[in-house]
Write a structure and sequence with these properties.
Blueprint lengths: L3 H19 L16 H34 L18 E4 L4 E3 L8 E6 L6 H12 L1 H6 L2 E7 L3 H11 L5 E3 L4 H5 L3 E2 L2 E2 L2 E5 L5 E5 L7 H11 L2
Length: about 230
């Protein structure tokens, strides 16, 4: 029994050494410092922010432009007026650039409106000069004559002076009145004429009509009223 104790002690010593060898040593690692953004990265980020701001401003401007365009559109009737309907009130410009209210031109007299696609073109000049040549016959029957087109007042004024047209011209660049009369086809105007009695009620319309026929047909209709 005296020889057993040293053997036990030696075994315990070896186990203790193995345990110590298996013990993990924790080493603290210093935290990495955040990398500073490079100049190229900073510039790229700034450009992205700038582009975002520009896109936002462009969107705002686009929305405002659409809104402005919507505001410019004049109110129109639900559809083209027909026989028996009243001439609507729309403020436009005459050939002198003066305001003219279409709803008031037929208060005291009957009115003939003839529509042309474009001032100072062959067909339109034939139609306009036809009304010029028998204009006094219309006035003797207590009817005024107005030419209507989408041309600017300055273009109409030159045409009126050049061809000595004795009646006023109405400038309708947005085809507001032309549309209400049912003569607008996209960016074009259909050649036509409309006869309104005193008070503004529509009595007759011809659309389309030939340039040379329009003046005489309108006059004959008025004479047929007695």
């Amino acid at each position: 029994m005296a020889f057993d104790e040293p053997r036990v002690t030696a075994q315990a010593t070896r186990r203790s050494s193995r345990i110590s060898a298996q013990t993990k040593v924790e080493v603290s690692v210093p935290a990495k410092k955040p990398r500073k953004p490079s100049k190229a990265g900073t510039k790229r980020a700034a450009e992205e922010v700038d582009n975002d701001e520009k896109n936002k401003k462009a969107k705002v401007n686009e929305d405002e432009t659409v809104k402005d365009k919507d505001d410019d559109v004049l109110p129109q009737a639900d559809g083209p007026i027909d026989i028996g309907d009243i001439l609507p009130s729309i403020t436009l410009k005459n050939e002198k650039g003066e305001d003219i209210d279409t709803g008031s031109i037929a208060i005291e007299k009957g009115v003939v409106l003839f529509l042309v696609p474009k001032a100072d073109t062959p067909g339109c000049t034939t139609q306009a000069c036809g009304f010029r040549d028998i204009w006094q016959e219309f006035t003797s029957l207590d009817y005024d004559v107005y030419g209507v087109s989408a041309d600017a007042p300055t273009a109409q004024n030159k045409w009126q002076t050049k061809k000595q047209l004795p009646y006023p011209l109405i400038s309708d660049p947005k085809r507001s009145l032309i549309g209400v009369l049912g003569a607008a086809e996209g960016n074009k105007t259909r050649r036509s004429h409309f006869v309104f009695e005193k008070g503004g009620k529509l009595l007759d319309k011809k659309m389309p009509v030939k340039p040379a026929d329009s003046p005489r047909v309108a006059l004959e209709f008025i004479k047929s009223l007695g």
